[in-house]
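## retry 2 of 3
previous attempt timed out at serialization; input unchanged, resubmitting
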Amino acid sequence: MDPRLKIFLYALVLLLGVFISAVAQVILKKAAKKHYGSFIKEYVNVPVISAYLIFVLSTFMSIFAYKEVPLSLGPVLEATSYIYVTIFGVRIFGEKVGKKKLIALFLIIGGIVVYSFGTV
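## retry succeeded, writing output
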């Protein structure tokens, strides 16, 4: 297999792991907005346990992906989580994106693009 294709496929695994980690964050936030009868029920319920299991899966996906993804590329791909979380926040929770956050997101996207051109 071509080494670049192999890195690309492992990078997709890393990106998928970052994405499902963002999904787990949404699940935790939704669970945090609910009222539970006791302290224990706040932490021992299906959404919370599911979210933490998703985090574990995401961690294993990252470990697997780093077998081929260069260490310098990993943080760049993981920075996409800020984009996913912002999109989920706006679409699911109706959060507002202020000017500073928008500028920060464009800087993150710009950094990813600049890094991508440097590796081609």
